[in-house]
Design brief:
Length: 256
């Protein structure tokens, strides 16, 4: 990762510490960078008078500090406070600000656990599967929030299954999808579970697992038709040895 380009020359002698994540910030660029990359964590550790005073005293951005103080006096929203910082910093283009505003509006009425899922989903969508797994795991390992429907946690398990699957860790993915199915009773989750089992189990064990379970047999039949259809559409024949090599490479990455 490259270094931040400083648009403002002033660097604080005394940093502003964001207690929630134990991070020290020295410049307006670092503050904006933190905000944009942690929108799901924006709370009282940022939206407060102490930050206004720090911006005034340490960064000598007095007009920005006074504008933020005035917004606090008027009981501004979290979104308004954050956008004022980003706009006044003159670091971001209008298109970037609008994108951030849309995300903030989406997060505004969400619970903490929903924000955590948003973080993990964002990591997963950007290909950071290992980090996404850690965030998803932190959600299911903490005390569950009774104010959200249990299916929310089923979807977390399904997301974990997808992340493990992207890393070709099919056995781990299968366990996650099975738990997701137990909670949500969603056929698509059962389908994903059987596909992962098919990928990591020896053929005889997979057939034995299906035998005597009419639900599994029915879903497996549908799954095979879907896989066949996809293969016909893609029409790409990838040698099995290549697939095995890719799996090994991803597993090595996961152990680092």
């Amino acid at each position: 990762m490259g270094s931040l380009i400083l648009c403002h020359r002033k660097r604080a002698k005394q940093p502003y510490e964001i207690s929630r994540v134990h991070m020290r910030i020295y410049t307006i660029e670092e503050l904006c960078y933190y905000i944009c990359n942690n929108l799901y964590l924006i709370d009282y550790t940022i939206i407060n008078r102490q930050l206004c005073n720090w911006i005034d005293r340490e960064l000598e951005l007095k007009e920005l500090a006074e504008r933020l103080r005035e917004e606090l006096r008027q009981n501004c929203s979290m979104e308004q406070f954050v956008l004022t910082i980003l706009r006044e910093s003159t670091i971001y283009a209008t298109a970037d600000i609008n994108k951030i505003q849309n995300i903030l509006e989406h997060l505004q009425n969400q619970k903490d656990v929903e924000r955590m899922k948003y973080k993990a989903d964002s990591l997963q969508n950007s290909g950071e599967y290992e980090t996404a797994i850690l965030v998803y795991q932190s959600i299911i390992n903490r005390e569950w929030d009774d104010s959200v429907h249990k299916s929310f946690y089923g979807k977390i398990y399904a997301c974990l299954g997808a992340a493990y699957g992207r890393l070709f860790l099919y056995e781990e993915a299968a366990h996650m999808y099975l738990e997701a199915y137990r909670i949500c009773e969603d056929t698509d989750m059962l389908k994903a579970y059987l596909y992962c089992c098919y990928r990591y189990l020896p053929g005889e064990q997979y057939v034995k697992m299906l035998s005597g379970n009419p639900v599994y047999l029915s879903v497996d039949s549908v799954l095979k038709e879907e896989v066949k259809s996809v293969r016909q559409e893609v029409d790409v024949d990838i040698p099995e040895e290549y697939l095995e090599q890719w799996k090994k490479e991803y597993r090595r990455l996961d152990k680092k």
